[in-house]
Amino acid sequence: MSTSSLVMFEEEFKQITAVIDRLLKEANAKIVFLMDKDGQLIAASGDTGDMDTTALASLTAGNIAATGGLAKLIGEKEFSILSHEGEKDKLHISIVGQRAIVVVIFDQRSSFGLVRLRVKKANDELNVILQKLLRCVGKKPSVQENLLAEITDTERPILNIEAR
Predict the structure, then answer these.
(1) pLDDT at 71
(2) CA 134, 66, 114, 32: dihedral to nearest 10 degrees?
(3) pLDDT of residue 133
(4) What does the alpha-carbon distance between residue 82 and residue 64 come to, in Å, rounded to a whole number?
(5) What single-letter DSSP state applies at residue 146?
């Protein structure tokens, strides 16, 4: 169920931020979030000042997990798009490359049709960035591995790290 943490590099973070900033404008949305499926917020755009972004990310991940269970019960792999409509605001939630979640919060100034169209384009771009990021992570040693390489054998017992 849980995916491994996503390691983010500055270049990819800037690309992701540019995509969600553009999505915010093109969809005429109030807020756009990108998070991983574990509920960790990756990036946000829009007026998030009064919003508990941590709670929103966690609840959205829970929503995806719950609807994933519903999908399996009826023989589907997953529901890749979810929407919720309130009195003032609407949510459009979509899965990006089975790895991340985009949430768009919008009001009467936009429509589900426009948001869905713009999200589809953004998801394609985000999926390319995330796939590139995953390939890069596979090639580069992790920060922890780099730090461990700098530790001398005399320091290992202090840190309780076994040499391999």
Answers:
(1) 92
(2) -60
(3) 81
(4) 8
(5) H
Structure-block tokens of residue 50: 């009064």
Residue 20's alpha-carbon distances to 76, 109, 112, 158, in angstroms, are 28, 18, 17, 44
Q: What is the pLDDT of residues 65-84, one digit of tens each?
A: 999 999 999 999 888 899 99
Could you tell me if residue 145 is inside a domain? Answer: yes
Q: What does the pLDDT look like over 140-150, one tens digit per residue?
A: 554 444 444 54
Answer yes or no: is 16 within a domain: yes
Name the pLDDT band for 161 (thresholds 50, 70, 90): very low
> For residues 62 and 12, what is the distance between their CA atoms, to the nearest angstrom?
26
Q: What average pLDDT score do residues 18-34 get?
A: 96
Q: Is 156 left (phi over 0), alpha (psi -120 to 50) or beta?
A: alpha
Q: CATH number for the domain including 69?
A: 3.30.450.30
The amino acid at 5: S
The total number of structural domains in the chain stands at 1
Q: Where are the beta strands (DSSP E) in 18-154?
A: 31-36, 41-46, 81-85, 90-96, 100-106
CB 117 within 8 A of CB 14: no
